[in-house]
Amino acid sequence: MTILEFKKQCISTLSKTSPSPSLDAEVLLEYALKLSKTQLLLNSNKEIPGEQLSWLNDAVQKRSTGLPVAYITGIKEFYGYDFFVSPKVLIPKPDTEILVDRAIEIIIEKIDAHPGKILSVLDLCTGSGCIGLSVLKNLMEKVHIEPCSLPKFTLTDISQDALEIARKNADHLILQGKSQTQKNLLESKLSFIQSNLFEQLNYEYDVILSNPPYIPHSMVDDLLKDGRNEPRLALDGDINLFGNRATDKDGNEKDDGLSIIQNLILQSKAALCPMGTILIETGEYNAEQTAAFAKHNGYQTRIHRDLEGQFRVVEMN
Fold first, then answer.
1. How far apart are CA 16 and CA 64, in angstroms?
2. What is the pLDDT of residues 173-206, one digit of tens each?
3. CA Rg, the chain, in Å?
């Protein structure tokens, strides 16, 4: 079967279940054949080797069940970088890049305001590490901050499986290709800690970044009906500190996606340095409630919109 024939067959099969069958076909072909989009076009009439064709057919079957392409290939592009992912972590979403953009701006402002100070940055609920590692890599490669002057980054998650993926991404994106001396220095800038929010942390941070679970409990099941296989632990925002369904003061089960965020905000008071900044991603349906809760607890707030103009990131100072 040629590349073009497979693409047509793939699109026909996935058009019944996928909202993006053409893109799915291209991504699977690029991954399996190690070709760019342009190379696929130039080689569209070439036969696909048997081993790769077998993998592709299996991949199409998995995609037809709703499994995301990123979980099939094990890779997802975010902020221009390729991250390893698995069903143990959320797939990085483009809207989260807004948080990364703002984090980089804030860190540069703080470095300029306090030259010589080594900042401390916390990526709470890190998952794949896409937020913290994208910020760090950008500071290294685009802003060109010398390694010795880079902030110290702490990446935490309640899931040990997620932390292992974050470590793998750090090895791939931050440490790979560096000399041993450079690796030693960069490793000293990275910490990975398993923690239920701030429970295992005893340090103050200049910048706290987080994309915590913020989906209302009743919406999680609907999200997962398409077979996407994303971890419920990383989605459901209505869970208390003990891992149970959160309730309000009257004992009613909460369903606004704010329980984890509210605990995060309350705990952050003891973990944020003076003049520090917090950036939290939340849903367009509860961003204003998040900002109001933060303001009630002494923070000045600002809400940033995502790529579609929806409220997405709450900034707290």
1. 8
2. 999 999 999 999 999 999 999 999 999 999 999 9
3. 21
Identify any residues that bridge with 304 across adjacent strands, giving them in sequence order.
313
**How many CB atoms neighbour CB 162 within 10 A?**
26
CA–CA distance, 36 with 156 (Å, rounded to integer): 35
Q: pTM of this prediction?
A: 0.95
Distance CA 315, CA 207 (A): 11
SS (H, E, C) the chain: CEHHHHHHHHHHHHCCCCCCHHHHHHHHHHHHHCCCHHHHHHCCCCECCHHHHHHHHHHHHHHHCCCCHHHHHCEEEECCEEEECCCCCCCCCHHHHHHHHHHHHHHHHHHHHCCCCCCEEEEECCCCCHHHHHHHHHHHHCCCCCHHHCCEEEEEECCHHHHHHHHHHHHHHHHCCCCHHHHHHHHCCEEEEECCCCCCCCCCEEEEEECCCCECHHHHHHHHCCCCCCCHHHCECCECCCCCECECCCCCECCCCCHHHHHHHHHHCCCEEEEEEEEEECCCCCHHHHHHHHHHCCCCEEEEECCCCCEEEEEEC
Token output for 200: 């295992």
- What residues of the chain score a pLDDT lower than 70? none
Query: How confident is the model at residue 30, as a pLDDT?
Result: 96
Query: What's the pLDDT at 99?
Result: 98
pLDDT digits (tens, 9 = 90+) for 127-143: 999 999 999 999 999 99
| Dist CA 4 CA 308 (whole Å) | 33
Q: Please give the structure tokens belonging to residue 133.
A: 């590692």
d(CA 81, CA 124): 20
Q: Which residues pair with 77 in a beta bridge?
A: 82
